[in-house]
Amino acid sequence: MQLSKTEEQLMQHLWKLEKAFMKDLLNAFEDPKPATTTVATLLKRMTDKGFVAYKLYGKSREYYPLVKKKDYFSKHVNGLIKNFFNDSASQFASFFTQETDLSKNELEDLKKIIDSELKKK
Predict the structure, then answer these.
(1) What gap in Å lies between CA 87 and CA 29, rounded to an integer?
(2) Over the stretch 72-106, which tens digit does the pLDDT of each residue have?
(3) CB under 8 Å, gap of 24 or more: what pairs does 24-30 form?
């Protein structure tokens, strides 16, 4: 299951805050802030999907993520590779390095990361 674009935006704030009440989440948005009812609806949907849970303190709910940011995006990148690059990480890497405006320094950094991973295996 995945999040909609607006749910993902809200989830980004929740990952950053780690746990938050409604007022904290609303404050995390730039102006114009979304309506409280909009955020409440998004949180309900995200709770139903199993991405968010909450603790009750009287009538207040403190929300927290059930899914780690790294796990969520890892699943999406793997899906992207599978669906758009014939399940080939090298095709993805080729596209990524050729079709983005990476500087020489950024490419060198990627090379170091890959070399480091190769040493681990």
Answers:
(1) 36
(2) 998 888 888 988 899 898 888 888 888 888 899 99
(3) 25/63
Q: Considering the entire predicted model, what is its pTM?
A: 0.76
Among residues 27, 69, 66, 62, the alpha carbon closest in space to that of 48 is found at 66
In sequence order, which residues have a C-beta less than 8 Å from that of residue 84 and are 6 or more positions away?
92
Do 29 and 13 contact (CB within 8 A), yes or no? yes
